UniProtKB/TrEMBL annotation:
Lineage: Bacteria, Pseudomonadati, Bacteroidota, Flavobacteriia, Flavobacteriales
Species, as recorded: Flavobacterium aureirubrum
Name the record gives this protein: Glyoxalase
Length: 131
């Protein structure tokens, strides 16, 4: 499994954001693991959201900009099946050690993960359009 972990780390790149001695375990995990994965998976996550919105009768695409932001947040918070699929796309890029760390505090890390994903999608809402 060492080969997989090395490959995953090389693919993801380095930590994004600062990690200090006084950083909490969750903050360090966020900057070392979650941010690089979200950056790597960004294009896929946008396409997955577009596909979800299309399957939901494309209502999203006719909303005002403010309502689009609310839609993104509500969907990821309320549609558990969709949220779990998104989580899986992120967790798939954990190393074995990161996964062991994740399961110790999965509830808080899931909140961070989904909040970061929501903010990432909201900040790129202009890219979420039908082609």
């Amino acid at each position: 499994m060492e080969t997989r972990d090395i490959t995953v780390l090389e693919l993801r790149g380095n930590a994004i954001g600062s990690i200090f001695n006084q950083s909490s375990v969750e903050e360090a995990f966020q900057n070392k693991t979650l941010r690089p994965i979200l950056k790597l998976q960004n294009d896929l996550l946008i396409q997955v959201f577009i596909n979800y919105a299309v399957k939901q009768k494309s209502v999203f695409f006719s909303l005002s900009p403010d309502k689009k932001l609310n839609y993104i947040e509500n969907v990821i918070q309320r549609d558990i099946k969709f949220r779990n699929a998104l989580k899986g796309m992120i967790i798939a890029f954990f190393t074995l050690d990161e996964y062991a760390e994740y399961i110790l505090n999965s509830s808080n890390l899931n909140k961070r993960m989904m909040n970061m994903l929501v903010e990432r999608l909201k900040s790129q809402v202009q890219l979420i359009e039908l082609n």
